[in-house]
What does this fold into?
Amino acid sequence: MGAPLRTVFFGTPLFAVPSLDLLLASRHQLLAVVTQPDRPKGRGQRTTAAPVKARALEYGLTVLQPESMKDSAFLGVLHDLAPDVGIVVAYGKILPEAVLSIPRLGLLNVHASLLPRYRGAAPVQRAVMAGERHTGVVIMRVVGALDAGPVLARQHRPIGPDETSVEVEQDLARMGAALLASTLDSLAAGLCREEPQDEGAATYAPRLAKREGLIEWSRPAADIHNMVRGLYPWPHAYSFLDRQRIILLRTAALADAAREVPGTVLLARGSDLRVATGEGTLAILELKAEGARSMHAREFLAGHPVAPGSRFAQF
It folds into this structure.
């Protein structure tokens, strides 16, 4: 079984919390939590603790929030802790060699894709947007290059045709935590095997940008449906109807052929709101106008009459 490992945890968002919880419940020792500095968020620009910091404070853990990973005071504290291994789960910054060299056994990362596919900041969202039918989670060794280290463990998961990125990500967070716990036990026992990544198969999943949500109605309905799923809960897929920004929350891709110009409303009656695309028809099931609450199509159409032949546009 090996002696319990002395660990330091690096993480910031909600995705990292299940791994932190399971690490605390394990036989391994958690010395400190490193998380991003508090940032103002939202319309009121209020400064609040990110999910990992909030959970760490609940447990009374030591929390470190360096502005820079190269800060000498932070590196001194990390060195004095003498960790066996560092755990990185969506920390939000690339770790320099000065950090990587401190833990005796290096650092391990919980990554929400089947590496080498979808390296980068938004692997779940990019996989859903691409219409992938499978994804998964891996435990990899952190190296100087982005998500390029050897893989110690992996687990697969199917992606449902209507699942959103938030649903997939929540499940992968739980799966990743369990996989991390078993990998740490294997590491402590000296039983881990490392599998180098195939660089030729690597793809990149860059951070999402708000502008990516603007719908191009000339694309197939299936692609737009995947976009709606992948960009939920942020930044959302959107379009404009009568110059009002409309956010699409839930859709369905229909195979029936539409002969109208892409973006044309084909049906707006009862609970049916259907729009022509470059290939097939998109049924809009749930949506919201800018600044309003989300509504099912029936409720939206009751308060916002839409005439067939109206056009969704890109302005």
Q: What stands out?
A: Residues 6-201 form a domain with the Rossmann fold fold (CATH 3.40.50.170). The chain has a mean pLDDT of 95.
